[in-house]
Every structure is written in C-alpha cells, then in structure tokens.
Amino acid sequence: MKKKIVLSVNAGSSSVKVSVYDVEFEQAPVQIAEAQISGLTSPPASLKYVRDGETVIKGKEVDEKVEGQRDAFSLLLETLIDDEDLPQIKSKEDVGIVCHRIVHGGDYTKPQLISNETYHHLEDLNDLAPLHNANSLGIVKLCIRDLPTANNVACFDSQFHSSIPEHIRTYPINRDIAQSNHLRKYGFHGISYAFITRSTAEFLGKRPEELNLIALHLGSGASACAIKAGKSWDTSMGLTPLAGLPGATRSGSVDPSLVFHYASDVGKLSPASTKDLHISRAEEILNKESGWKALTGTTDFGKITSAAFSTDSSDHAVMKLAFDLFVDRICGFIGSYYVSLRGQVDALVFAGGIGEKSSQLRAAVVNQISCLGFEIDEEVNSNNEIKDVVQEVGKTTGERDKPRVLVCQTDEQFEMARACAEDAEFW
C-alpha cells in the first residue's frame, strides 16, 4: 500500500493540536509537522507551527476570528496547506486519514472508522463527557464536510481501559439502572497510557504482556493507572474524567454529597448548556470552578510549586497546601495500586506536562512512597532535562528487583497515528 498523510487531531477545552505524519501501512509514523492554537478560552488565541523539528511560527497572535475548536482546526489546516515548504500537503485532497482523539468512547474497545452510525452513537455519549466530546465531534463534522476524500478515525481515551475487571469497574448501585444508563468506570487518558506501556516495555527490554506498572499522567487533567501484564487493571478516573485526582479546575473525587452543600442550584442546568449539550450546575462547579484554581487562583502548577518552595512568597502557605494536597492524593492511588498489583511492580512512570517537568513533585511523591521500595536519584531527577522518550530518574544501583522510577514523554498524537497505520480497515 502507498503512503498516506495522517493528521492526528487533539482537541482540548482551550486548544487544538494537529500533528502531521507521513505513514506507510504497518510502519512507524514519521512526523513532518505540528501546529497548535492555544488560548481559545482566554483570547487572543496564539498559533505555534513546527515543521521538520524547526519552529516556523512561535506564539503568533491569531488575527482571524477564532471562536472555538472548529475555527481553530480550519485555521491550522489552512496553515499547513499554505506552507510552500510542506509539499506533502498542497491541497485538502492530500490528507488520507484524520484520526481524532475522542475522550469518551463508551464500550468501544478499539479505534473506529467514523460512519454516520458511529458519529450519532458518539453524540449519544456527549452527556457522559459534556466538556470534551462535543468539541471533538464538531471537528469530526467539519472534516467529513471539508475533507471528503479522507477517512476519519475515532481513537478513544477510554478504549485502553476496556480490560478493567468487572469487580473494579462496577459501581455498587442498582444493576438494572447502571446497565440501562451505562453507569460504570470507563477511565480516560488511555491513549497516553497505551504509549507509556509500549515505550516503557521497550526501555526495560520486556514484552508489554510481561509488564506491571503504576503510571501517572499528570497535567491540568490528572490520573493514575495500574497496568497489569500490559493491560489496564484499574484507573483513577471513572464514569467521567472528573473522578480521582484533582486538576487545574477539577475537584477530583470528593464526597458525593459535598456539591449539594456547596450551592442550592446544583441540580439545575448551567447557563452554558445548549439544546444538544446538558451541563448541570454541579458538573460545572466540580469540573471548571474547583482544583488548583479554586485553591490558589492559578492553574499554573509551575507557579504553585515555586511559591510552595519559597518561604519568602506572600502566598507560600496556600501554594504549599495545594502542592501537598496533590502529592497526598497521588500517593494514595500509588499505595492502593501497589497492593492491587500485589507488590509486583516493575516501575512507577511519571508522564504528562507536570510529570515530565516538575522534578519537585516527582521527588516529593517518591520520597513519600519510599517504604514501598521506590527511590529517587536526587541529582539525576533535579539536574537532567528529560530528553529521551523514557528516562530513568530513580536509583539504579543496589537491588535490581527494586521498582524503577521513570519519566515518559508521552505522545498521544503519535499513538493515534500508529494505531491507524496498523489497521487495514482505515486504508
């Protein structure tokens, strides 16, 4: 089969990223460009464009009217087509496959070629991830219209977790209601965890099915995952991405009754709801008005960390509270998963923007769980920039059966393109 140009589209709540790959069937994708528009929720939006590893546009303020993810994607596609130094995409017809990151895939266990039937089924799942799926589906609809010669493929954040055992994914509620309303643990960040599992196995010289990990995807959205024999065994997010660890604006797990004591109107629909998208005031509070922003006034974890470690800072106390709270919640999941995996853990893996960049957080977490045999190498952890896809930051001397401490530069766009490259249905 001939080569295809594959676009991997990752639509977040405030950004859209498109990675461009040159792909041969059953071969590893080769990235040739990447473009991103960020700041959609805090205009003016800005454009970054990288071609063949060289930054072409960095943080350029977008002059055009960009009112959402669809507008952002259209501008990114235009940027790629208009670039004379990117001969692989001279027109829309040059795009062979567009793979879309869809947060909630319900019971889908693998990527799906998007047909009318698939699209409408995904629309029905919007209420389970109202702050995520709708943005992605808007871009899917646009691609179906504007890129008629391309195959559209949905890659799901939930699909990696389809292996979670029934006794872990089941909620202790009325079973008939749970089944009819699809109420169970689904889990998210699965595309990232698939990349982490494969990359860590390669780093440790093992087959994925021989590997047990505790993996942490830590960013503005944060989660933990127990991976047993290369498959998801348990994860901190649940029916929706809200459960588990706190994030930039998410509360993470709280007492279910808390929200009813928080405000009197939590059962009503939020003003942000539309006829197609139903968001309760409770969901809005816990998803968008909580987390580090509610505690500290900022969503920037770098600022929180700096102030937490500086006693001269005027907001030192509240920043340290947020930092310590995050460490505590992370360690709680690590301890639980260590027991669930019966102590058979090859490595603890940090990933995501915070996991990759915050040496202070990694050190604090590993020091707190040192009783489980994890040990940080202070010098390597604090002094070395993370350059490799997987890098060791734990102590490697002494007992070889001690669990490793690793950092993985996860790449969801590559993982989606790789999945497309391996499935003949998409070609």
UniProtKB/TrEMBL annotation:
Keyword flag Coiled coil: no
Keyword Nucleotide-binding: yes
Residues annotated for substrate binding in this entry: R101
Binding-site list for Mg(2+): N10, E412
Functional pathway: Metabolic intermediate biosynthesis; acetyl-CoA biosynthesis; acetyl-CoA from acetate: step 1/2
Residues the record marks as site: Transition state stabilizer: H189, R250
GO biological process terms on file: acetate metabolic process; acetyl-CoA biosynthetic process
InterPro entries: Ac/propionate_kinase (IPR004372), Aliphatic_acid_kin_short-chain (IPR000890), Aliphatic_acid_kinase_CS (IPR023865), ATPase_NBD (IPR043129)
Ligand binding (ATP): K17, H217, L218, G219, S220, G221
Cofactors required: Mg(2+)
Transmembrane segments: none
Molecular-function annotations in GO: acetate kinase activity; ATP binding; magnesium ion binding
Catalysis performed (reactions): acetate + ATP = acetyl phosphate + ADP
Cross-referenced SUPFAM superfamilies: Actin-like ATPase domain
Active site positions: D157 (proton donor/acceptor)
EC number of this enzyme: 2.7.2.1
Keywords: ATP-binding, Kinase, Magnesium, Metal-binding, Nucleotide-binding, Transferase
Sequence similarity: Belongs to the acetokinase family.
Record protein name field: Probable acetate kinase
